[in-house]
Amino acid sequence: MSLGFARRVLFPSDHKDVARQFFWAGLGFLLVAGCFAMLIRWQLGFPGQPVPAVGKLLFPAGRGEVPPASYMKLFTMHGVLMIFFALSPILNGALPVFLIPLMIGASNLAFPWLTRISFWAFALASVLALASFFVPLGTAASGWTAYPPLSSNVGMPGAGQTLVLVSLLFVGLSSILGGVNTVTTVIRSRAPGMGYFRLPLTVWGFFLAAILNVLFFPVIGVAVLLDILDRTLGTQFFAAAGGDPIAYQHLFWIFGHPEVYILILPVWGIVGDLLAFFSRKPAFFYRGTVMSLIAITGLSALVYGHHMFVAGLSPMLGKAFMTFSLLISLPSELLVLSWLNTLWKGSIRLATPMLFALGVVLVFAIGGLTGIYLGTMSVDLYLHDSLWVVGHFHFTLSAASLLGAFAGLYFWFPKMFGRCLDERLGKLHFWITLPGVILVFGGLLLAGYGGQQRRLYNPFALAYNQPLQTLGMLTSLFAYALFMGQLVFVFNFFWSLWAGAPAADNPWEVGTLEWSTRSPPPAGNFASAPRVERGPHELSDPEVQQKLGRDWIGQAESLPR
Amino acid sequence: MSELLPYRSQRQLQDDTAMLGWLVFLASWTMLFAAALFAYGVLRLGAPGAWPSPGLGRVPPGVPALATLALIAAAAAMQAGWSRIGRGRPLELSAALILALLFGLLFLGLEVVVWRQLALAVIHLRDSLYGPLVYAVTGLLALHAAIGVAATATLLVRSVDGEYSAARHLAVKLWTFYWHFVAAMGIVVFGVLFWA
After folding, report:
1. DSSP letter at B5?
2. CB distance from B41 to chain A under 8 Å?
3. Burial of B81 from C-beta contacts in 10 A (0-12 / 13-18 / 19+)
4. How many CB atoms lie within 10 A of CB B3?
5. What is the span of the domain harbouring residue B126?
6. Residue A265: pLDDT over 90
7. For residues B85-111, average pLDDT
């Protein structure tokens, strides 16, 4: 290892190097948290039976079955790692850090040093979260929401829970600093001619998610900080006697609801762009789409109470939160209708990124529609704390966000690494993943509608859940198939990285700025600063077709007179 | 068709970018205080009976009011110093920085008095919500004032070294806004914790 290599790893000045660091970290945690999900599904499909192959290794105390305490740790850390350590670094770290300067025609982010610090804070958080597994009593077991008293010294004694809470503080710091960088970059570093309404929708998604990051991560910071004080100094802010555990829930969801939009806004942006690119048409009602995204961003800050309908909230307050929550479906509907109109009569090319984008439209529709039931107080009283909730947020967060991340990955992989992913393996991956997520998370919805509560160690010990046991087993089997499908991606990824065909500069034949430079782009991104002349998806323009003989034109490309 | 914009040098453009990033960051940090005060409000509304619990004294608003005035004075001194260096008067900047430093230290000293009053009025951390909450929120504020004091001291050393001029004083501008932020937070904290 030469000194230059070490410097490039520790002090990368190029945004693309930091982006790759976020990317590897996120993919690593995705795999770990995915394995946790498999263990959870084992317990829900075959409760109390020894885990095949790895059981003895992981749980040496018994016959290799998942013990109750470990089960709680598994579902807790599955959520924590997926949200804060896998999806967040990919959708709010790797992709925006890599893409924003390239898509707006800048040579770097506004504050390159801040990009580095943002990753270091994330790396520190990762170390703390991983360390929590190896302390006495083990890692956090409070559920990903870390509600007190579950996350108090009474609910979960030991250093592990504290370490996880501290790691969330550093994740927050990383997100805030990254968000400051993103917001400033989009406002200040756009190339000449790149007006706000010429930005690719992807950039809009990153930009709005960054605003939510900046404004709402401090709120969970306060919640977690007070919880840490309760655990370490013996204060009683969230103690059931003397304090108020509900105060934590308020703070958590003031952050928690925008957080789900932090994870889905980048995906909406990516999908908006990809549907236009692969339909060879401009995005339908671009301005309306942008306005919808802005409206949803604003509304997302006003709806957190719908997570607390059964927490003793005043019904009048609940009604207000319900109204705002259901109001979100209006701009969301506009978004989906714009996507469908973009597809209408397009010359659709079903490449892998497009398949994943179409998949997002489908699973997001399911996730959104099942959310309406939970946003309505009267229905939520019945469905609250059931697997319906788990199914709903897995459709939006896991299925839609993950499929969106894959769409982005398949689309920008050539630009990121200079090589092409194998299309056949990519399509195989898609055709396993899409039915997989629908069957697995659909199974959760059905079980929840049947009355099965979430987080139970052995739900089938309760008589009223016993009719759902076959469903649980089937869901688990589908989950294993889904997991196997992801191994296709892992293989494709590494194989293409070493042996994939070298990527052309513009393999998808689209006009946004990142495709006008080399694959992968050199340091500084562009040979000369681009001068932007048009919007992001001016495809199939007859004048361009006549003069250039192709159906696309670069955003910074002049049309010959 | 491009509009005519007044000429800004590359350095001025970079300064503007730094300033914008700083404002976005301070907006984020405002939410930190907002969340802390929201927690105070929810816990206070949820607390049964009188606030603070019967038998516990409340910190009288006198000393906290003085402390808040000290914060405002520190921010005003920074503002004066920034406007003076903008007109090319480094000596007056140094004088203003000394004033800001003193007011900042005065604030920290008064906070210590507040905490002493609190220690006398509240028996123990575990015995009530009021005491720990006031410690936590004022502690958060004092931490930010202390960071401001440390930064102002650094600015003062650099100012005496003659590092700042009418054309180059970005750090002075950024920390002036920081002090405005701390003063604004101080006013709100005073209103919520000691007045309401």
Report:
1. -
2. no
3. buried
4. 4
5. 61-195
6. yes
7. 96
Helix (H, G, I), strand (E, B) or coil at A386: strand
Does any CB of chain A come closer than 8 Å to the CB of residue B136?
Answer: yes
A260 has pLDDT over 60 = yes
Instruction: Note whether residue B47 is domain-resident.
Output: no
Query: Which pLDDT tens digit goes with each residue over A376-412?
Result: 999 999 999 999 999 999 999 889 999 999 999 999 9
Out of B17, B42, B47, closest to residue A110 by CB? B17
| Average pLDDT value for residue range A504-523 | 94
Q: pLDDT tens digit string along A71-121?
A: 999 999 999 999 999 999 999 999 999 999 999 999 999 999 999 999 999
Q: Chain A residue with minimal CA distance to B23?
A: A180
Amino acid at A61: A
Let me know if residue A453 belongs to a domain: yes
ipTM over 0.90: yes
Q: What pLDDT score was predicted for residue A313? A: 87
User: Nearest CA of chain A to the CA of B96: how many Å?
Assistant: 30
- Phi and psi angles of residue A419, each rounded to the nearest 5 degrees, phi first: -135, 160
* pTM (2 d.p.): 0.96
pLDDT value at residue A451: 93
**Which residue is it, tokens 């400051």?**
A180
Mean pLDDT of chain B: 92
Least Cα separation, residue B99 to chain A (angstroms):
31
Query: In this complex, which of B17, B24, B36 lies closest to A222 when CB atoms are compared?
Result: B36
Distance CA A244, CA A532 (A): 55
Q: What is the DSSP string of B29-91?
A: HHHHHHHHHHHHHHHHHHS-SSSS-TT-----SHHHHHHHHHHHHHHHHHHHHHHHHHTT-HH
> Among A348, A249, A264, A347, which Cα is nearest to A305's?
A249
With respect to residue A367, please indicate whether it lies within any of the assigned structural domains: yes
- Alpha-carbon distance of A437 to A427, in angstroms, equals 15
Domain of A401 in residue numbering reads as: 360-505
CATH (domain of B148): 1.20.120.80
A462 belongs to a structural domain: yes
CB-defined contacts A:B, below 8 A = 92
Q: Do B126 and A214 touch (CB under 8 A)?
A: no
Determine contact: B143 vs chain A, CB below 8 A. Answer: no
> Does residue B88 lie in a domain region?
yes
DSSP-derived 3-state class of residue A99 = helix
Nearest Cα to B25, choosing from B149, B189, B175?
A: B175
Which pLDDT value is given to residue B2?
59
Domain count along chain B: 1
Cα–Cα distance measured from residue B43 to residue B188, given in angstroms and rounded to the nearest whole number: 17
d(CA A236, CA A241): 8
Q: Tell me: the pLDDT tens digits for A178-208?
A: 999 999 999 999 999 999 999 999 999 999 9
The pLDDT, as a whole number, for residue B124 is 59
| Closest CA–CA distance from residue B108 to any residue of chain A (Å) | 22
The answer, yes or no, to whether residue A20 has pLDDT greater than 90, is: yes
- Tell me whether residue A195 is in a domain: no
Inside any domain, residue B4 = no
Would residue B109 count as lying in a domain?
Answer: yes
